[in-house]
Amino acid sequence: MYELLYEKIRENISISEEEFNFCKTLFQPKKLRKKRFLLGEDDVCKYTAFVEKGLLRSFIIDEKGTEHILQFSLEGWWAADLSSFLTGEPSKYNIEALEDCELLLMTKPAWDLLLEKIPVFERYFRILIEKNLIVTQRRLIASFSDTAEEKYYKLIQNFPHILQRVPQHMIASYLGVTRETLSRVRGQIAARK
Amino acid sequence: MYELLYEKIRENISISEEEFNFCKTLFQPKKLRKKRFLLGEDDVCKYTAFVEKGLLRSFIIDEKGTEHILQFSLEGWWAADLSSFLTGEPSKYNIEALEDCELLLMTKPAWDLLLEKIPVFERYFRILIEKNLIVTQRRLIASFSDTAEEKYYKLIQNFPHILQRVPQHMIASYLGVTRETLSRVRGQIAARK
DNA sequence: AAATAGCATTGATCTATGTCACATTATTTG
DNA sequence: CAAATAATGTGACATAGATCAATGCTATTT
């Protein structure tokens, strides 16, 4: 436990073992079974979660009742509704385990304490959020200019492994198309080969 | 000069006057005329720019030759291609002044120095990027679930002032619809009143 | 004031994707 | 292991918005 976290942190910043030991005390380990929710809409996002094992999805349900997946969080990534976690306002998002998960949870007070005691974590989180922003900007542009097929192609280029772990209708939701459309796109690709 | 910058920084973090004085030395003021470019695609984004006055747009041109506006940067905001600025790789974006602008430019080495000397700026930039991420996530979800009219409505709720300063076809591009569609949407709204 | 260029509007099609309905196939779960 | 449930595939049809093309504005510029 914590090895992956240590590794991921040191990919971006350098901290001493002592500092990491303090950091560890701020987390609470938590197992979350498949289909259980880390966060439900209208609740405040009390934790930011580091994923040691498993896979979660963050999604929103719009006024028409359609689900839209904002993010998949795999091992080594974080899952939370940033906006709610930071402001303490109720979230519009849901975060659900798609597999049995092992998480490391951190509350907002613990997070504040971490940043206060070891300010270099500001840098760590800045870098994480930057990467997330860059990915989200690309998805936004893709939603403007790519066809369903192009979006699907890019996904299998960038995250080939995700396809094996996530049902197709969730891939469709992540791409912003219906499951029927994705099914047809896949059919056409297969037919061409 | 620099008052707006000082104000914006202190909205998010607290720094001493001395620290701010050091910070100031890292910028170079620059006037940029309307229609001139701060960054052209295939160039490395050498500066991150604080906007003291004026208005810029960041946009990308896709394979089909269509422009897509990622962001408008008004007074008090920043403009840059984060990805290129951080990595030093050529940018795919263009940044163009839509009005005569007064900017404060900072190079990557200056930026690194600022973060090294006054680490609390890590926090400042983290908060900025967080806000940007939250807005971008909302736009992504909107692109999945909102009609052209809904997207336009939300824009005039959130940025009523921008409409007076930006030609309609650029608003359309920001929303991810064609100028014709936006024109029709506006016509329908007007007809209903 | 004429001229030129950029913007916005409007109409007539076209098309990718959505919607609805049902069939088929996997995967859970009692 | 069977029944229930969830996921995928396919067909017929509907539609929001794109595309293409012409026309009318409005601002600068000369």
Major sheet strand order of chain A: 1-8-3-6
Q: Could you say what the CATH architecture of the domain at 3-119 in chain A is?
A: Sandwich
Number of strands of chain A: 8
Oligomeric form: homodimer
Portion in beta strands of chain A:
15-25%
Rounded to the nearest angstrom, the distance between the terminal CA atoms of chain A is 44 Å
In summary, what is this structure?
With 193 residues, the first copy, chain A, is an alpha+beta fold.
Give an account of the 3D structure.
The structure is a homodimer of 193-residue chains. Helix content of chain A is 51%, strand content 22%. Chain A is of the alpha+beta class and 193 residues long. The first copy, chain A, has a domain at 3-119: Jelly Rolls (Sandwich). In chain A, strands 1-8-3-6 form a four-stranded antiparallel beta sheet. In chain A, strands 2-7-4-5 form a four-stranded antiparallel beta sheet. In chain A, α8 (168-175) crosses α9 (179-192). The N and C termini of chain A lie far apart (44 Å). Chain A binds chain B through residues 60, 62-64, 66, 68, 70, 82-83, 86, 115, 119-120, 122-123, 125-126, 129-130, 132-134, 136-137, 139-141, 143-145, 176, and chain B through 60, 62-64, 66, 68, 70, 82-83, 86, 115, 119-120, 122-123, 125-126, 129-130, 132-134, 136-137, 139-141, 143-145, 176.
